[in-house]
């Protein structure tokens, strides 16, 4: 059964999706925001945010709640349901829900985000926010003057290790192979920073807690076991875009992210992608909000002109 006919359906009520909803509602458009889990997305997993303008310090959960309250006060229609699939019917977008209902929209904004790849260690989830982090920009300041480890050998791991070295007493970068995937200029930069130690050919085997917080990590380097003191463990081993349901549309790149133009349009007319699901380098709360605003404004203008 096909339901309703919306100007715009937004999938994902994270920062970018909620920002799009606010702008679209201000433009008087008939929009529906679909969320499969908890509104707020990745931001709700950040303990303290100190880089979102207007808030000197705010918890991720609090910021997400404030955004959701704003969306609700604007009377944006919100549907809590998982999306199973998206189909095209001429110019219309058919959003198939996991209970087989179908929603029809002229335009679609995909704001489903990405999740950091996990190491898969037994205490990883329990210690997230208690030493384990996936965002140095968000959480680095909490480890000022302390000893931390960074896991990974790509651009993100090296960039974040360099950033953390300016805040922390010592940064130990641990990579599972000898060669780094990261760009050579980042590898060169590492060599000139005194408080970064690099350990290669090593795997993290255990996160060790003391009084409910991370205190050490255990590594296996070529069959030698070592415990490294660390109050922070920053894991940067790649990200997984939440685009499985859209892959058949042909809008994703090899890694599953969605390339867009500067207006956030994908290669299909009327389908936009915003926030961390988009192919881009910088993923911050403020850039997610920016993407959401740009897509909504562009879309509103196109609907008025058509
Ligand atoms: P990435 O390039 O995919 O690197 C992931 C790193 O994590 C690799 O070193 C990989 O090791 C390691 N890894 C993966 N799974 C692991 C596991 N289970 N245990 C231990 N290590 C594991 O990810 P990224 O650094 O987040 O970068 C993502 C993309 O964004 C890349 O295309 C990157 O170039 C781009 N980016 C660009 C910039 C920039 O240009 N300034 C900045 C950030 C990101 P192996 O090498 O052994 O596979």
Give the mean pLDDT: 94
Tell me what portion of residues adopts beta-strand conformation: 25-35%
Low-confidence stretches: none
Shape: elongated
Radius of gyration: 21 Å
Layout of secondary structure:
Blueprint: E1 2-11, H1 15-26, E2 31-35, E3 48-49, E4 58-59, H2 60-73, E5 77-80, E6 83-89, E7 92-97, E8 102-110, E9 114-116, H3 124-127, E10 132-133, H4 136-139, E11 147-151, H5 155-165, E12 170-174, H6 184-191, E13 196-199, E14 202-210, E15 213-221, E16 224-229, E17 232-235, E18 239-241, E19 271-273, H7 285-305
Parallel strand pairs: 1-2, 1-8, 2-5, 8-19, 10-17, 11-12, 11-17, 12-13
Antiparallel strand pairs: 3-4, 6-7, 7-8, 9-18, 14-15, 15-16
Written account of the structure:
- The protein has helices spanning about 15-25, 60-75, 125, 135-140, 155-165, 185-190, 285-305, and strands spanning about 1-10, 30-35, 50, 60, 75-80, 85-90, 90-95, 100-110, 115, 130-135, 145-150, 170-175, 195-200, 200-210, 215-220, 225-230, 230-235, 240, 270-275.
- It has about 300 residues and is α/β, with parallel strands linked by helices.
- The strands form five sheets. Strands 1, 2, 5, 6, 7, 8 and 19 form a seven-stranded mixed sheet that branches.
- Helix 5 runs parallel beside helix 6 (about 185-190).
- The longest helix has 21 residues, at about 285-305.
- It is elongated.
- It starts with a strand and ends with a helix.
- The mean pLDDT is about 95.
- It binds NADP nicotinamide-adenine-dinucleotide phosphate.
- NADP nicotinamide-adenine-dinucleotide phosphate (NAP) binds next to helix 5.
């Amino acid at each position: 059964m096909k339901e309703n006919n919306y100007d715009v359906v937004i999938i994902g009520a994270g920062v970018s999706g909620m920002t799009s909803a606010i702008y679209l509602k201000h433009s008087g458009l008939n929009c529906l925001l679909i969320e499969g889990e908890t509104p707020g997305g990745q931001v709700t997993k950040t303990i303290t945010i100190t880089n979102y303008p207007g808030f000197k310090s705010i918890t991720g959960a609090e910021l997400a709640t404030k955004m959701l309250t704003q969306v609700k006060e604007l009377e944006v229609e919100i549907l809590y349901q998982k999306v199973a699939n998206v189909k095209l019917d001429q110019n219309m977008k058919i959003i198939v829900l996991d209970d087989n209902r179908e929603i029809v929209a002229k335009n679609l904004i995909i704001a489903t985000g990405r999740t950091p790849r996990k190491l898969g260690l037994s205490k990883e989830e329990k210690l997230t926010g208690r030493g384990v982090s996936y965002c140095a920009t968000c959480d680095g300041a909490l480890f000022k003057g302390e000893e931390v480890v960074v896991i990974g050998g790509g651009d993100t791991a090296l960039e974040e290790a360099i950033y953390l070295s300016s805040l922390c007493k010592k940064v130990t970068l641990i990579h599972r192979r000898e060669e780094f995937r990261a760009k050579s200029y980042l590898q060169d930069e590492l060599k000139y920073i005194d408080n970064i130690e690099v350990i290669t050919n090593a795997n993290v085997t255990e996160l060790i807690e003391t009084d409910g917080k991370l205190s050490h990590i255990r590594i296996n380097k070529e069959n030698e076991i070592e415990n490294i003191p660390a109050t922070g463990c920053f894991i940067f081993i790649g990200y997984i875009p939440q685009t499985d349901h859209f892959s058949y549309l042909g809008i994703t790149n090899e890694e599953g992210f969605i390339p867009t133009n500067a207006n956030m349009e994908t290669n299909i007319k009327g389908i936009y992608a915003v926030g961390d699901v988009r192919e881009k380098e910088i993923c911050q709360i403020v850039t997610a909000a920016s993407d959401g605003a740009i897509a909504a404004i562009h879309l509103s203008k196109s609907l008025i002109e058509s």
